[in-house]
Amino acid sequence: MKRRTLIALTAAVLAAPTIALAQAGSKPVRIIVSFSAGGPVDTMARTLAGPLGQALGRTVIVENKPGANGAIGANEVLRSDPDGSAIWITSVGAAAINPTAYPNLPYNTIRDFAPVSLVANNVELFVVNTKEPAQDAAEFVANIRSGKSSPAIASSGIGSIPHLALAQLELATGLNLLHVPYNGMAPVLNDLMGGQVAGVFADVPAVMNHVRGGRLKPLGIASPTRHPLLPDVKTFKEQGFPDVDTNNWYAMFVSAKTPSSVVEQLNKAVRAAVADPEANAKILQSGAEPKSSTPQELAALLKADTDKWAKLIKDRNIEVK
Length: 321
Known about the structure:
Layout: H1 2-24, E1 29-33, H2 40-56, E2 60-64, H3 71-79, E3 86-91, H4 92-101, H5 109-112, E4 113-121, E5 124-129, H6 137-145, E6 152-155, H7 161-173, E7 178-181, H8 185-194, E8 199-203, H9 204-212, E9 216-222, E10 250-255, H10 260-275, H11 277-286, E11 289-290, H12 295-315
Parallel strand pairs: 1-2, 1-3, 6-7, 6-8
Antiparallel strand pairs: 3-10, 4-10, 4-11, 5-8, 5-9
Helix pairs in contact: 2-10, 4-12
């Protein structure tokens, strides 16, 4: 009797991931976006939803849960069944920066979430008003040092990637620049084109159309290599500032309670979705770089960037209120 019981228990344990998948199979897969509809992360989610559904053989829907700097969307996934039916798609900010910027955050990405896959790399581009005389970031910095200009540099908010890229630039140059934080990138771009502020670091997808249309001037890419859509724009490394290096990557996570076999199945599906020719081309054309990964690679990237941004936030005494 004991032997039969042990066999039954062992079989139940081994079958648990399969049961989880079977139970989840009748549900649609929800991609939870921590930001408003129409933004770059939302666009990424909607670009991948179709091919992800095809790879999984399931219906995939996108739900927007904005607010609390990404915490509402994150908590929605943690409250859901840990069966792979709720996926959190986020940028590096909510995943790797918020745990340091917001000490009372109700989640810890490394502890509470299981990495599924990276979906895109997304570097920062430094853009200025078209009336700015400098032709690149090195000249822009030289003009400030010579006293020819004392510009106000905007960001989408204190503790945001654009703000941290600005902090990197200050450390690299020894300058103390006037930082003007906004609530989001849309009002920044309106004021930048109107001349109320001089420049901003922004995700390439957020400003690509303005650059193409000649409404903003790009001065430097915060990346080790040039951007394929902006081959004439030099990197900050090429201009003598190698430490100005950001990657506002986008990635997918599920609850840490999700069975590892489910995570692996999701990883294969996400990688297939990112590789889908139509989705891949759309992501690249937006200005982001399609990029998938293994769960282990994403875990290492998350840990490295959490440490990197935590050090910068503490060194610069950045306080998010």
